[in-house]
Design brief:
251 residues, alpha/beta, Rossmann fold, 7-stranded mixed sheet, 10 helices, 44% helix
Length: 251
């Protein structure tokens, strides 16, 4: 993990840290091709007189995928995508530890903003570390795997979670990636074992209903009163172009 400053004002101003999500690792170390999140952070920092940086972490990128003709035919491309997802989830937990250590070295107030798996990282940090502000956009984490009580205690201002039922990434790929049944096995065995295939598909659909992503359904009713919870009605990729507006809505 490393920090990339994108906007600087005076040292005493609060620091806005943005954590992007899955598949945002640079294709070449040190060379950032997509600066979409940078632009959003810069816009917020200019409007609110903040210092801003974006976290680079091992979130994976397109080079991790297997796009050979043979792999497309036998389902290994899908398997490599799910493998990349699981690896990114493990790396997200490690990044949360590193980010917590970094934040503890800061003397100014810290505002933490995360999208998708970056939202997962932000929530993990907030579970154990005091912050001034927390905003999780479409967080890719099981709603039952968040310590909401600790977050409320740790964050000085009311923490915010932005979610959307229109988020197809979290309603499909997240569930497949979380499922103990490999979706690739379901596809491969469809003709050979139709009965087992139906059972596995039923399990995946049931997982979607009972353990959905926080960024898909929002904070559970038992904790909703302690959070600013906004139904954005956005698709997963639309958060980046609307980050400034969302910031204004929840702060």
């Amino acid at each position: 993990m490393d920090m990339r400053p994108v906007y600087t004002t005076t040292p005493d101003r609060p620091l806005l840290i943005m954590v992007p999500g899955f598949f945002t690792k640079p294709l070449t170390p040190g060379i950032i091709v997509d600066r979409s999140w940078d632009l959003g952070v810069i816009s917020i920092c200019k409007s609110h007189d903040l210092n801003g940086c974006v976290v680079n972490w091992n979130s994976g990128n397109i080079l991790d995928l297997n796009f050979s003709v043979a792999s497309l035919y036998n389902g290994r491309s899908l398997e490599s995508a799910l493998r990349s997802w699981r690896s990114a989830c493990d790396n997200a937990e490690q990044c949360a530890v590193s980010l917590s250590q970094y934040i503890q070295t800061q003397k100014s107030n810290v505002y933490l903003l995360g999208h998708s798996l970056g939202g997962r990282i932000a929530l993990r940090v907030a579970e154990s570390l005091p912050l001034t502000r927390l905003i999780a956009l479409a967080p890719a984490i099981d709603i039952h795997n968040v310590d909401y009580t600790s977050i409320v205690r740790s964050v000085a201002e009311r923490p915010a979670v932005c979610y959307s039922h229109r988020d197809r990434v979290l309603s499909t790929l997240f569930t497949c990636g979380q499922s103990p049944h490999k979706i690739t096995d379901v596809v491969k065995n469809a003709r050979l074992e139709p009965g087992r295939t139906l059972r596995n598909i039923a399990h995946i659909l049931n997982s979607r209903a009972t353990a959905p992503a926080l960024g898909l359904v929002g904070v559970p009713e038992s904790h909703a009163s302690d959070f600013t919870c906004v139904d954005t009605r956005l698709r997963h990729a639309e958060y980046v172009s609307n980050v400034s507006q969302l910031w204004s809505m929840v702060t």
